[in-house]
Amino acid sequence: MLNADPLHARPILVNAGPLARVLDGFRSRAGSATEMWQLLTDNYVVDLDAVAALLPAEEPEPVWLAARG
Fold it and tell me: Which superkingdom is the protein from (predicted)?
């Protein structure tokens, strides 16, 4: 993650509307949720709870237990 540079001001996104528009713009550039988070935090100061509410949760792949014999 980006080390915050106090001399470089980044726009602040805390409202759902503008945040959703930025997320839509980044979807074509980001290949994964990790890249989406990286783009957001590199370019904006964001409300992490608002971002988490807008991005779909990644569900882990189920791990099937081996049948006991």
Answer: Bacteria
